[in-house]
Write a structure and sequence with these properties.
It is a single chain. Helix content is 38%, strand content 13%. With 488 residues, the chain is α/β, with parallel strands linked by helices. The strands form four sheets. An eight-stranded parallel barrel has the order 1-2-3-4-5-7-11-12, surrounded by five helices. Strands 6-8 form a two-stranded parallel ribbon. Strand 9 and strand 10 form a beta hairpin. The two termini are 30 Å apart. The relative contact order is 0.15. Keywords: Glycosidase, Hydrolase. InterPro entries: GH, Glyco_hydro_1, Glyco_hydro_1_AS. This is Family 1 glycosylhydrolase.
């Protein structure tokens, strides 16, 4: 029985280009959906309102040259500060750093005949900086940053043309960074698409008789693209390891009433298992036949689609885990709380973060066990963390005991899962340096071990400060997860 983290366990953190880089109009980059996503100021931060997208609203945003209300345009200046920021991550002892490449930098017009050399050089510099510090670069190929041109020219992932464009993009970066990058993720949290179609698929809810059918068509096209990209990656370099990724929405039955248990099973399948079954088992699960029939969903497939999906499954299963929720056949009198992408039923046995997300370390152990049992592939926790309202003290310190406590309890759960027999190969917490929030485009919701002096409207010095959790995580990595004690 394994009783501790493996000696070669990958400790690190993760960010995305669209939340960190900034420089949205520099060196040939074209605009993306995040660039037209406004800061969503709320009176109650526990109630998250998702931004609705229309073509008209996007056109208005494109013409607004003031980036005050579009925080993802400026990020945290990582485009310019990557060397200093990576050095800070290296000081913590990171052995892996997950980041994404902006498709809109590499192919600004979507269907360019040649890639943007400035973009390729930039990302090679970032990769080299990681390698200089003995850090494995783990690259997300597409991370919630759909180029606007792909939506405007082709209608997003509803159009199969994007499969070819994506493969051209993949071939470019697989070839350019061959021998330097080993770990890749095809699509970030692919299961988010049903709840955030424009953000993940570039499919706007306009002109469709059945919008849900359009979304599932886009997801199918991404499944095919991911499978073909996996095949391509292995052909270019047989050392490449390609992962799929979901945001795992762990759910429990509200009661032992059979109807609640069936609702839990249904929710787990529709929110999580469907996406992993296709990418890790290599086939559409049988339970989706009924759903597609009852909801008048007809996915158009071409000859060879199912074969390429079957023959090119993911090498490892990546997932994000932030919280759990409950399922009930009758939620009439149950309390609602905020969650990742959607509001969820509140579990009375769990505490919540300042944003209302339910904190459940045991749920991480449960998830690792159930997912590994189903697929028996190496597991990689690609995101996990807690958003807090951090305060910068006058002496430049940030006391974030709540973050330390959150991570400590989740690391304890990970150790238990390893004892259970789960093959867990790595952990990249979200996100090691404060960045713009994906859902609300605010800066106030901070996940990092490193504080960035910038507010929701871009004011501040952007100077980096080490939080108490910085030193704690450094010690965790140094001891390979054996010492989870207080801040040193």
């Amino acid at each position: 029985m394994r009783t501790q983290f493996p000696d070669n366990f990958l400790w690190g953190g993760a960010i995305s280009a669209c939340q960190a880089e900034g420089a949205y109009n520099v060196d040939g980059r074209s605009m993306t959906i995040p660039d037209v996503t406004m800061y969503n100021k709320k009176l109650d931060r526990k109630i998250t309102k998702q931004v609705s997208f229309t073509r008209e609203a996007i056109e208005v945003a494109k013409k607004d040259l003031d980036d005050t209300m579009y925080p993802k345009r400026r990020g945290i200046d990582f485009y310019y500060t990557y060397k200093e920021d990576i050095a800070l991550l290296a000081e913590m002892g990171f052995s892996v750093f997950r980041f994404s490449i902006a498709w809109s930098r590499v192919f600004p017009n979507g269907d360019d005949t040649t890639p943007n050399e400035k973009a390729l050089e930039y990302y090679e510099n970032v990769i080299d900086e990681c390698l200089k510090h003995n850090m494995e670069p783990l690259i997300t190929i597409s991370h919630f940053d759909m180029p606007l041109v792909l939506m405007e020219k082709f209608g997003g992932w509803y159009n199969r043309k994007l499969i070819d464009l994506y493969l051209n993009y993949c071939e470019t970066i697989f070839t350019r960074y061959r021998g330097k990058v080993k770990y890749w993720v095809t699509f970030n949290e692919i299961n988010m698409s049903i709840k955030a179609g424009p953000k993940t698929l570039g499919i706007i809810n306009e002109g469709f008789d059945n919008y849900e059918e359009a979304l599932f068509q886009g997801i199918h096209n991404q499944f095919v693209a991911a499978a073909k990209a996996t095949k391509l990656a292995h052909e270019i370099d047989n050392n490449n390891k390609i992962g799929c990724m979901v945001a795992y929405f762990t759910t429990y039955a509200h009661t032992c009433k059979p109807d609640d248990v069936m609702k839990m099973l249904y929710d787990d399948r529709m929110r999580n298992q469907f996406y992993l079954d296709v990418q890790a088992k290599g086939k559409y699960p049988w339970y989706m036949d009924r759903y597609f029939t009852e909801n008048n969903i007809n996915i158009k497939m071409e000859d060879g689609d199912l074969e390429v999906i079957k023959e090119n499954t993911a090498d490892f299963i990546g997932f994000s885990y932030y919280m759990s929720m409950i399922s009930s056949a009758d939620a009439t009198n149950l309390e609602i709380t905020s969650g990742n992408v959607m509001n969820v039923l509140k579990n009375p046995y769990l505490e919540g973060s300042e944003w209302g997300w339910q904190i459940d370390p045991v749920g991480l152990r449960y998830t690792l066990n159930t997912v590994y049992d189903r697929y028996e592939k190496p597991m990689f926790i690609l995101e996990n963390g807690i958003g807090l309202l951090d305060k910068l003290n006058e002496d430049g310190t940030i006391n974030d005991e709540g973050r330390v406590d959150y991570h400590r309890r989740h690391f304890e759960a990970m150790k238990e899962a390893i004892k259970d027999g789960v093959d867990l190969i790595g952990y990249t917490m979200w996100g090691p340096i404060d960045i713009i929030s994906s859902g609300t485009s605010e800066m106030s919701k901070r996940y990092g071990f490193i504080y960035v002096d910038q507010d929701d409207f871009g004011n501040g010095s952007k100077k980096r400060y080490k939080k108490d959790s910085f030193y704690w995580y450094k010690n965790v990595i140094k001891t390979n997860g054996e010492d989870l004690g207080d801040v040193k």
